[in-house]
Amino acid sequence: MIEPELQERIKHNHFCVRCGHATWQWKIEHLDMMGRPICLTCPHEKFWILRGNVNNNCEFYQLGTPLQSTDPNDPTHVVDYNDTETYR
């Protein structure tokens, strides 16, 4: 269980894994050893984003679930990184 004070700080941070503009990348080179994606892309960023990134200065942040990669060769996994108990 996460402490209430920590949970409140997490809620007010702009985690890229909880942004509706982000897109998960499912190619094999972007997966961790457990098969979960490591990298996200964003139409408002030039570079790839790591899943633990916090960007409180992002003016485009929109709370939501990241999209899945549109590459037809990528598996269609659904990962809930909004689960703050598992991914923080």
Description:
- The protein is low in regular secondary structure and 88 residues long.
- The two termini are 12 Å apart.
- Strand 2 and strand 3 form a beta hairpin.
- The protein is globular and about 35 Å long.
- It has a three-stranded antiparallel β-sheet with strand order 1-2-3, with no helix packed on it.
- The protein is built from one helix and three strands.
Strand order of the largest sheet: 1-2-3
Whole-Å distance between the termini? Answer: 12 Å
* Mean pLDDT level: 76
Strand content: 5-15%
Largest beta sheet, briefly?
3 strands, antiparallel
* Helicity range: 10-25%
Give the overall shape.
globular
Count all strands and give the number: 3
Radius of gyration: 13 Å
Question: Helical element count?
Answer: 1
Low-confidence stretches: none
Series of H and E elements: HEEE
- What structural class do the secondary elements suggest? little secondary structure
Keywords:
88 residues, little secondary structure, three-stranded antiparallel sheet, 1 helix, 3 strands, 10% helix, 8% strand
Show the helix and strand layout.
Elements: H1 4-12, E1 23-24, E2 39-41, E3 49-50
Antiparallel strand pairs: 1-2, 2-3
Summarize the structure.
With 88 residues, the protein is largely without helices or strands.
